[in-house]
């Protein structure tokens, strides 16, 4: 769960950086990269741990 929060937090920071650079093509790429990390971090929080095999 801690890793999910770290990924989400870094995604927020990167998204804010990309938002301030948006008139540039690099800004849109950085913004999308950050938003993808936010999405993946949140989805990872809902994932069930795979401990049923042990």
UniProtKB/TrEMBL annotation:
Keywords: Membrane, Transmembrane, Transmembrane helix
Transmembrane segments: 5-22, 28-46
The protein's name in its UniProt record: DUF4175 domain-containing protein
Lineage top rank: taxon: Bacteria
